[in-house]
Design a protein that fits this description.
- The chain is 48% helix and 15% strand.
- The protein is built from 19 helices and 16 strands.
- It has helices at residues 18-36, 52-61, 65-82, 96-111, 166-174, 182-193, 222-227, 229-232, 243-248, 263-276, 308-315, 317-326, 338-367, 381-399, 403-424, 426-429, 436-457, 462-471, 482-485; strands spanning 2-11, 40-48, 89-92, 115-125, 130-132, 151-160, 179-180, 199-200, 202-203, 211-212, 215-220, 255-259, 285-288, 291-293, 296-297, 334-336.
- Strand 1 (2-11), helix 1 (18-36) and strand 2 (40-48) form a beta-alpha-beta unit.
- Helix 5 (166-174) crosses helix 10 (263-276), helix 14 packs parallel to helix 17 and helix 15 runs antiparallel to helix 17 (436-457).
- It binds 5'-O-[(L-methionyl)-sulphamoyl]adenosine (MSP).
């Protein structure tokens, strides 16, 4: 099975912000999970480099747009490497290959008779790169998202016949699972029910874009160009490949993960453009929520923007991943709170999971010659059943992209195994020789539970997972698949346990 997942292609007006790190971490975790299930994953990310916003940014910096784009694009790549993002393709919309695919696509849409010249009048937000309309048609002065003045436009543009696709789009957006979460789906259905209007796909007076082949004074509208990046990305390392080759190599996307603000582009405009070119629409569009900070919208004017770079240096990759993946339900808005962050990392990772592993492996080492115990009857059926229930719930949640619930399954399992250990008190039992078999049994079941925890953490916290598994000894699982390794009882008996180290350092408030 193959699985194509995409992040949005980020504007290069600035280096990655917490919102882009958030989406990319989500996609990374899903991509890792699908790979563990044995699927062939194509994980696409990249940058959106054209348009007025980028042109103006370069002018401000007094550099050419290309130099500006090169610099920020490198910064994205460096960042994703640092965050250990396992992307397979990185697309830049200024690449020649992308330009070739956009033009090929445009010809197809033109051949479907879906392009015409018209006049575009309206209020434009350069931040959103989008025309804005008030429901009552009164002119808006400022963009509600960027809080910046809108600019009036009155120019000849090429238009795309979106209206022609009204009924097909209605059908697609109503398909089960095409738009998630549900609340977002309703917003889109409501918008479409008011009637789709054709939209302009070219700009005059804008140099920084791909030139429209038969209208040299026009460049393509940045969204028309950028959405195609999802397809040109597939063949970016194989530059002689055409649009149709790329399609065969991994289209349609299984899922586009995007922020809720750009859902219309992905769930309406993009499928209609694809239908016009005779290409299948993506299978799913998931609109996640926005991150706020201590309850407030993050913004430069409020001075409360959280720099992901700072979070990385201060807390490390895995702590940030756990907070974003476990504490925020994908689809809802999420709040970043400093105190909560420290509490969650300390409680969940250091105290609950880390401590469980350290104390059980220390006891085993101490009492069983630096090894796991050796025993005949090793399985506590209650713990085993709990582990299997945890695995089932984890998988069913992950399959629905409920990564927060999947993470909580692991945590709850760890909490209960801690309880099991506390209730059974092997440190008291060991004082009497006659209890030795019982102690072995308890310790084995706890260590085996830690192995399951380590495996389940793999797509969420890959490094922490690795540390847990290493600490349980070199586990030779005979090239078993990840799913097979989740079978109970595979922790070897009487095998070396390395000296325990804390798997994560506790954080301080400051
Ligand atoms: N370039 C377009 C996407 C084109 S896709 C073919 C774009 N880029 S963006 O850089 O402005 O935004 C990228 C993503 O960041 C969007 O999905 C947006 O929703 C997300 N976020 C921006 N601020 C955010 C938060 N505060 N919180 C979470 N995500 C946020 O739009």
């Amino acid at each position: 099975m193959s699985f194509t997942i995409t992040t949005p292609l980020y504007y290069v007006n600035d280096k990655p912000h917490l919102g882009s790190v958030y989406t990319t971490i989500i996609c990374d975790s899903i991509a890792r999970y699908k790979r563990l299930l044995g699927e062939k994953v194509l994980f696409i990310t990249g940058v959106d480099e054209h348009g007025l916003k980028i042109q103006r940014k370069a002018e401000e910096k007094k550099v050419s747009p290309q130099i500006h784009c090169d610099e920020i694009s490198d910064c994205f790549i460096d960042n994703w490497k640092k965050w250990e993002i396992t992307f397979n393709k990185f697309i830049r919309t200024t690449s020649d290959h992308h330009e070739k695919i956009v033009i090929e696509f445009y010809e197809k849409v033109k051949n479907s008779n879906d392009i015409y010249m018209g006049v575009q009048k309206g209020w434009y937000c350069v931040g959103c790169e989008e025309f804005k309309e008030n429901p009552d048609n009164s002119p808006l002065k400022k963009c509600p998202i960027h809080n910046k003045n809108l600019e009036w436009r009155d120019e000849e543009n090429l238009f795309f016949r979106l209206s022609k696709y009204q009924s097909q789009i209605e059908e697609i957006i109503n398909e089960e699972g095409f738009i998630e979460p549900k609340e977002r789906k309703n917003e889109i259905i409501n918008f479409v029910s008011k009637g789709l209007k054709d939209f302009s796909i070219s700009r005059t007076n804008l140099n920084w874009g791909i030139k429209v082949p038969d209208h040299k004074s026009h460049t393509f509208y940045v969204w028309f160009d950028a959405l195609l990046g999802y397809i040109s990305a597939i063949s970016i390392n194989d530059r002689e490949k055409s649009l149709s080759d790329s399609i065969l190599m991994g289209w349609p996307a299984s899922i586009h993960i995007i922020g809720k603000d750009i859902l219309r582009f992905h769930a309406i405009y993009w499928p209609a453009m694809l239908l016009s070119a005779g290409i299948k629409p993506p299978k799913k569009v998931f609109g996640h929520g926005f991150l706020t900070r201590e309850g407030q919208k993050m913004g430069k004017s409020l001075g409360n923007v959280l720099d992901p770079q700072m979070l990385f240096s201060k807390y490390g990759n895995e702590a940030v991943r756990w907070y974003l993946l476990k504490d925020i339900s994908l689809g809802n808005d999420g709040d970043f709170q400093d105190k909560r962050f420290v509490d969650i990392i300390n409680n969940d990772l250091a105290n609950t999971i880390g401590n469980l592993l350290n104390r059980s492996s220390s006891m085993s080492r101490k009492w069983f010659n630096n090894k796991t115990p050796f025993l005949e009857e090793k399985t506590d059926t209650k713990i085993k059943e709990y582990a299997y229930k945890t695995i089932d719930n984890y998988i069913s949640n992950f399959n629905k992209y409920k990564i927060d619930l999947a993470s909580n399954e692991i945590l709850n399992f760890a909490i209960n195994v801690n309880l099991y250990l506390n209730e059974n008190q092997p440190w008291t039992l060991i004082k009497d020789d006659k209890n030795i078999e019982q102690v072995k049994y308890i310790i084995y079941n706890v260590l085996e539970s830690c192995r399951i925890i380590g495996l389940l953490l793999k797509p969420i916290l890959p490094n922490l997972s690795c540390k847990i598994l290493v600490q349980l000894g070199e586990l030779n699982l005979d090239n078993k698949s990840w799913k097979e390794s989740l079978n109970w009882g595979l922790l070897p008996l009487d095998s070396e346990l390395p000296k325990p180290n804390p798997i994560i350092d506790k954080l301080n408030y400051d």
